[in-house]
């Protein structure tokens, strides 16, 4: 429906909605946002994974950092950065690119009125569909990352770990955790996009004192960040239990 098109792109922008350039930019945004942010928090992710698979040794977040630093030094806290960067860059490409593809496709199946009335359902269906394929792109690097981070002596780098894993289990080993990954990431992404979209609406309707069209780019960016933060809290809650399962399966 044209309602969702209007929400996605403002009039006067240089990029036509649903054009190849539009989807390419969405995918590029996903690569930059997911690849860089996940890589930036690799030390925290490493300690989290180790806590999930060996609570006795690492005890708490603070103790996990102390033990890791004592045993491996500062460099050890960056273990697994390469599969994290490449894996989540691919996932971001699929997540953000396919989300817009599916949102446009599903809304186009409805009348303009129903696209508005059922917009939350469109967000839910589009985000779930996008994440299904994005996780297929992520899963091999996620499996390798967890092994590098939680199995002492397995490998120190992507270049070392990839052929070892292929030799030991074949390519099917990279997808051993795909089902729990879907269970973790699909609810995460569904909550992220649906909550984000509706939070943006709510902020403009009830908090921002003027229409979106009258807001400057910096003002719109503040609203976007606020909505993203709120959505992030909820998506973290729903994804934590299956995240633990993914770490244990890939150990």
Automatic annotation (TrEMBL):
Keywords: Membrane, Mitochondrion, Mitochondrion inner membrane, Repeat, Transit peptide, Transmembrane, Transmembrane helix, Transport. Signal peptide: none annotated. InterPro entries: MCP_dom_sf (IPR023395), MCP_transmembrane (IPR018108), SLC25A3/Pic2/Mir1-like (IPR044677). GO terms for biological process: mitochondrial phosphate ion transmembrane transport. It is found in: Mitochondrion inner membrane. It is a multi-pass membrane protein. One of its GO terms (cellular component) is mitochondrial inner membrane. GO terms for molecular function: phosphate transmembrane transporter activity. Belongs to the mitochondrial carrier (TC 2.A.29) family. This is Mitochondrial phosphate carrier protein.
């Amino acid at each position: 429906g044209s309602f969702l098109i209007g929400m996605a792109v403002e009039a006067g922008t240089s990029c036509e909605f649903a054009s190849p350039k539009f989807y390419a930019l969405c995918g590029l945004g996903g690569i930059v946002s997911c690849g860089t942010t996940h890589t930036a928090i690799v030390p925290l992710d490493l300690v989290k994974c180790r806590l999930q698979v060996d609570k006795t040794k690492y005890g708490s977040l603070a103790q996990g950092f102390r033990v890791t630093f004592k045993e491996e030094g500062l460099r050890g806290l960056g273990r697994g950065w390469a599969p994290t960067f490449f894996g989540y860059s691919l996932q971001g490409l699929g997540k953000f690119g396919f989300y817009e593809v599916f949102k446009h496709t599903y809304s186009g199946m409805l009348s303009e009125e129903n696209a508005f009335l059922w917009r939350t359902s469109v967000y839910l269906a589009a985000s779930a569909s996008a994440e299904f394929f994005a996780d297929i792109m992520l899963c091999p690097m996620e499996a390798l990352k967890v092994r590098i981070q939680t199995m002492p002596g397995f490998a120190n780098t992507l270049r070392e770990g990839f052929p070892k894993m292929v030799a030991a289990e074949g390519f099917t080993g990279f997808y051993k955790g795909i089902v729990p990954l879907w269970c973790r990431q699909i609810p995460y992404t569904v909550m992220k996009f649906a909550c984000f979209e509706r939070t943006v609406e709510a902020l403009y309707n009830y908090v921002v004192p003027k229409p979106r069209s009258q807001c400057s780019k910096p003002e719109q960016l503040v609203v976007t960040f606020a909505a993203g933060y709120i959505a992030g809290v909820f998506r973290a809650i729903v994804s934590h239990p299956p995240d633990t399962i993914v770490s244990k399966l890939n150990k």
